[in-house]
């Protein structure tokens, strides 16, 4: 493995990138196993533990929220740029002003509901990219954000109805 970045801070990569890397590595090793005519005589070799760990991590990531997604690495830079761009009310394609860590959390979890969104982004209700001039407008901006993520992930947005929220408030 080659070190691509050196320095004090490590480079952070998303689960999607790790999953694609592990898939590539598994595909490179697959011909070695498939070429053997008698599978019982295959020697696992000195890297059997590494291969088992990589296979286990890959199967975990494939069952996680980013595993069933249709996100392609080629689309990620565009999404990351949009997530980190500072909000500007004069353009139709506003950014959201997320930090690097918040962006990584969003890419790893691909939120599909407002609840998930509030768990991933700190102080969401006061962030410029998510706040509107009214409560309803703020909810609309959050739904727009979830639809943006949905466009890249292929997951359906599960929005909470305003009526459900009002019913919950009345019960308290």
UniProtKB/TrEMBL annotation:
Keyword Hydrolase: no
Record's GO cellular component terms: DNA-directed RNA polymerase complex; nucleus
InterPro entries with a match to the protein in the record: HRDC-like_sf (IPR010997), Rpb4/RPC9 (IPR005574), Rpb4/RPC9_sf (IPR038324), RPC9 (IPR038846)
Compartments reported by the entry: Nucleus
Keywords in alphabetical order: DNA-directed RNA polymerase, Nucleus, Transcription
Matching Gene3D superfamilies: 1.20.1250.40
Top-level taxon of the source organism: Eukaryota
Family under the similarity heading: Belongs to the eukaryotic RPC9 RNA polymerase subunit family.
PANTHER family attached to this UniProt entry: CALCITONIN GENE-RELATED PEPTIDE-RECEPTOR COMPONENT PROTEIN, DNA-DIRECTED RNA POLYMERASE III SUBUNIT RPC9
Protein name: DNA-directed RNA polymerase III subunit RPC9
Natural source organism: Cyclotella atomus
